[in-house]
Amino acid sequence: MKKYYNIVCAFLGIYMFTSCGEGFLDVQSPTQLYVDEYYNSQERIFEALVAAYDPLQWLDYAWAYTTPAFLSDIMSDDVYVGGSDANDQLALHRMFNYNSISSSLPDGIWTALYSGVNRCNIVAQYMDGIPDISETNKALYLAEAKVLQVFYYKWLWKFWGNIPYYDQNLTFPYLAPQYKADEVYESMITALEGAIATGGLPMKADPEWYGRVTKAMAYMLYAEIVMYQNDESRYSTALKYMEEIISSGQYGLMDDFANIWEATGEWSEESIYEITYFSENGARGWNNQIADGGTVYPKLIGIYNLTDNAYFDGGWGFEPVRETTYMMYDAADKRRDGGILNFATFSAETGASYEPRYQDEGYFLRKYLPRKDGNKNQVGDADMNYDNNTRVYRFSEVLLNAAELLVKGTSGSGSAQTYLDRVRTRAGLASVSATLDNIIEERHLEFVGEGKRYWDLIRTGKASSVLIPDGKYRTNSWSESKKYLPIPQGEMDADDNLVQNPY
After folding, report:
1. Sequence-separated contacts (24+) of 405-408 with Cβ below 8 Å
2. pTM for the complete prediction?
3. Which end of the chain is less packed: N or C, by CB atoms within 10 Å?
4. Distance of CA 470 to the CA centre of its chain
5. pLDDT tens digits, residue range 46-83?
């Protein structure tokens, strides 16, 4: 059975506020115990830590469809938005075509991410008042909360860049200074370095604690942020972290790429970090979207009116894969059909049929399609309680990060060629030279639908030449002014000091 966290104190939910313009109430618990007085034991500060993890589960549906990988990939060249037409989830279609406006955004993710930031701050805010906690657990809990906070800020920074940043919770009037993206980067990376240095995080969690922050997860977050920033001064540290994960022997590649995405592949040897969802007693519903349980994302991308098959449930037809994405693979590459469903082949094998929707070209993201019985024994709404875990970081990315850093001239103990070959051998392919372009292309092949491609194009300077009109649906080109989304209008209205991103 999957390990998951429940929020034990309902009133912790009062801390859901964004960075600008919204406060929280002085709410008393049913026993008349004030929140400031509540955190008086290790058990209760652990409840606060558990609450800090909870917004991870909201990211698939933060009052709109907001899976971060999905939002990232629709701005790339691998998938379309789909749905019924260009007005179905209009904000997503605007993102796809680089014409977002501040009043039409999937802005619920802003709220969810800042809720996570806030909850992480609570752990630090009350920690010094805990009398019975060991120094070891104190350091561990604080490190977990800080790494989580950087994870939440990472997505705000990538999507919006110039954002309000704070590491102590706000007081009236609940406004925080807005920082430039480079300043946010420095704050994040410094905080992460401190958490890694002092936290006592394990390299890998014991199975009963899968889902908690580990040193390997923090290392991957560090490398992601540093490499996106192109911060050469920290490349050596990032490479050291990657090679420490490799040499630990606690992670490896699964033999069968396709099995990574099945229930048996969750928290496998390849998994550095996953966001865990579960269907057993899953309580999420359209009227209770932040309850514990499953995810709606598989239903969102499921094949519309799918019939006559024993493998997948149907869905709403979002995020269809482009034909060009499927065709970029060598026919021998196991990742092609292990990660993408070619419906013509699938229909010939099973007799299945479906009803095409907007932007459909006959290819679907097999990695996260809703599996049969994937929402069994849920007690909320069936559509929102699929148990597909979100794979955030995989060991293959460790290898490719290390290879990339090495070919960029960073000194390390391993071989870029060896690391690249390991990924290609698992895919069933022959060796290619470990050049920067080949490694970036390998990332493209490896991580379709995992939210990596768009950011790789930006950080490598390829976005303006690749993200151009496609002759079908995308009519605008990406440009440097499109790097950051407009700040949601509600946030602009709440704080006159916020400066809107150019877009």
Report:
1. 405/223, 405/227, 405/235, 405/238, 405/239, 405/242, 406/239, 406/434, 407/434, 407/435, 407/436, 407/439, 408/232, 408/235, 408/436
2. 0.94
3. N
4. 27
5. 999 999 999 999 999 999 999 999 999 999 999 999 99
Residue 37's pLDDT is: 86
**3-state DSSP assignment of residue 104:** strand
Three-class DSSP category at 312: strand
CA distances from 352 to 314, 322, 329, 389, 494 (A): 11, 20, 24, 26, 51
| Cα–Cα distance for residue pair 233/380, rounded to 1 Å | 49
Q: Which two tokens stand for residue 53?
A: 């993890």
408-427 pLDDT per residue, tens: 999 999 999 999 999 999 99
Place of tokens 């075509």: 97
Per-residue model confidence (pLDDT) at position 28: 39
At 425, is the secondary structure helix, strand, or coil? helix
Amino acid at 293: G
Strand partners, 307: 353
| Helix or strand (DSSP H, E) at 271 | strand 271-275
pLDDT at residue 8 in the model: 33
CB 81 within 8 A of CB 359: yes
Match 């209770």 to its residue by tokens: 288
The DSSP H or E segment spanning 273 is: strand 271-275
The pLDDT assigned to 174 comes to 92
Q: Do residues 245 and 216 make contact, with C-beta atoms less than 8 angstroms apart? A: yes
> Is residue 323 a contact partner of residue 280, using CB atoms and an 8 Å limit?
no
Q: CA 314, CA 304: separation in Å to the nearest integer?
A: 6
Interatomic CA distance for residues 78 and 91, integer angstroms? 19
Q: What whole-number percentage of the chain has pLDDT above 70?
A: 93
How far apart are the C-alpha atoms of 356 and 342, rounded to whole Å?
A: 13
* Geometric angle at alpha carbon 464, from 461 and 466, rounded to 5°: 95
User: What is the structure's pLDDT at 34?
Assistant: 63
- Token pair listed for 307: 């019939």
Q: Which residue type occupies 488?
A: P
What's the length of the chain? 503
Report whether pLDDT(191) > 50. Answer: yes
Name the band, by pLDDT with cuts 50, 70 and 90, for residue 112.
very high
Question: Within 10 A of 467 (CB to CB), how many other CB atoms are there?
Answer: 21
User: Given a cut of 60, is residue 23 above it in pLDDT?
Assistant: no
- pLDDT over 90 at 196, yes or no: yes
Kindly report each contact of residues 463-471 with a partner whose C-beta sits within 8 Å and lies 24 or more positions away, as own/partner.
466/77, 467/75, 467/76, 467/77, 467/98, 470/77
